[in-house]
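Look at one such:
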Amino acid sequence: MITRRLQPTLEYLLDNYPVVALLGPRQAGKTTLAQDIADRRPAIYLDLESTAGQAKLGNAELYLAEHQDKLVILDEVQRAPSLFQNLRGLIDQGRRQGLRTGRFLLLGSASIELLQQNSETLAGRISYLELTPFDALELAAGQTESLWLRGGFPDSVLASTETVSQKWRLDFIRTYLERDIPQLGSRIPAEILRRFWSMLAHNQGELLNASKLAASLGVDGKTVARYLDLLVDLLLVRRLKPWHSNNGKRLVKAPKTYVRDSGIAHALLGIGDKEALLGHPVCGRSWEGFVIENCLSVAPPHSEASFYRSSAGAECDLLLTFPDQTTWAIEIKRSLSPSLQKGFYFAQDDIQPAASFLIYPGAETYSIAEGVKAIGLLALLKLIAGKN
């Protein structure tokens, strides 16, 4: 088993909160991580998608009260929104008996925002943590290019061949469209949602043009917004917001969109190997999305990500604002001899970041301009992780 970088944080939260919610897309490794933790302490595991798991929670309050001396792991908890009210009563009752931490570990395949709609009753009792698919720091240094091509889902990146990896990803997409999304109550036809998801992959890293997407799908703008909200809530698509400030500049207001896992984006585009990827028009923007996801995966909790673009031509791919309110400006290039455009210097003048970097596929770190360092992905990820 590859040790997940998030594991010490998860164990710390379990030792300090009665409830911890571990969120992430399906197949990212949540259950494997939870079962590894269960091997280290008294625990029981319930899959809320299975008939057996649902039957045990027919009288949830009674069943869970019988296991109050154990860590109860509830998988796919978004399937049972009514359960949160029961948890609140059990937690408050346990506190009176001295059971204050490590009561419940909730695993969910939906965003914090979506889960919080159901878990407001647990305010002050719950801590949230997101587990992404593998990032570049969790694998060997020589696997970064393969991670970019295949994406970070364990069964994809660790597959024996490119063919096996691509088939797994295509099956993953089909399962989401035909089973998982309908189970959430969505009535969106699978073929239309697949077309929309594929369009987002073709437009990886571009400003969201809802009217253009709507015209291509034959729907209205509100419907496109609903489709996008669904994929964002399922942690499959990232909506990167534009930077906003009071500097008087006219800034772009539309967000950028990225299919979060590069391997899923490549599967949607029919890209099966590295040669096909390097020759595809989406190559540079795919690398950009891959870098952004890795940076956010290792960033401290509560860090904020945005991009910068003004009508005057100032532009920066990623602005990472840490909890201490310092901001790093990050430009991303898929070139071994990268160079900066004037727009980045204009953005630097507007933002005044604490540090500026240009990420490229090489390994050497060197100054490329005053106050700007060219740096490899792994080296930058280690700097970002050091902010924790």
Observations:
- The radius of gyration is 22 Å.
- The mean pLDDT is 91.
- The longest helix spans residues 162-183.
- Residues 319 and 329 are 5 Å apart (CA to CA).
